[in-house]
Amino acid sequence: MATAFVAAPITSLNPTIGAGFFTGLVQAFIAGPTVRDLECVGDDLATLRGWWGNRLTRVLLVFFFSSLGSAIGTLVAFGWLKDLI
Q1: How far apart are CA 85 and CA 83, in angstroms?
Q2: What pLDDT, on the 0 to 100 scale, is given for residue 64?
Q3: Buried b vs exposed e over 8-22: b needs ≥16 C-beta within 10 Å?
Q4: Cα gap 44→54, rounded to integer Å
Q5: How far apart are CA 16 and CA 55, in angstroms?
Q6: Cα–chain-centroid distance for residue 41?
Q7: Cα 42 to Cα 40: distance, rounded to the nearest angstrom
Q8: Which of the four pLDDT bands, split at 50, 70 and 90, describes residue 5?
Q9: Fewer CB atoms < 10 Å away: N or C end of the chain?
Q10: Integer Cα distance of 72 and 49 in angstroms
Q11: 54-67, pLDDT tens digit by residue?
Q12: What's the DSSP call for residue 31?
């Protein structure tokens, strides 16, 4: 969470990198996927609990949701900045 907080304002300035890259990388370092996670990814995709329980899909969820949050924050900030100028 702290990674997303720090990375979001910086990555909003550069469209080639996103906050999700950094948060996904940190999640992979903290709780890296195991061989079992890679073997069971097909079965775990079938349930909502499996998405969060599998470390590989958790990295993908962290990437997706932090990217989505950063994009929403950027759009809101553009609206505020438009009113200031």
Answers
A1: 6
A2: 94
A3: beebbeeeeebbbeb
A4: 7
A5: 26
A6: 18
A7: 6
A8: confident
A9: C
A10: 26
A11: 999 999 999 999 88
A12: S
DSSP type of residue 85:
-
CA 23/CA 17 separation, integer angstroms: 12
Kindly report the pTM of this predicted structure: 0.82
Do 32 and 55 form a contact (C-beta atoms < 8 A)? yes
Rg over CA atoms, the chain: 16
pLDDT digits (tens, 9 = 90+) for 19-66: 888 899 999 999 989 999 999 999 999 998 999 999 999 999 999 998
Q: Token match 């009113």: residue? A: 83
Distance CA 79, CA 63 (A): 25
Q: What are phi and psi of 41, to 5 degrees?
A: -60, -35
Q: Which two tokens stand for residue 26?
A: 């940190």
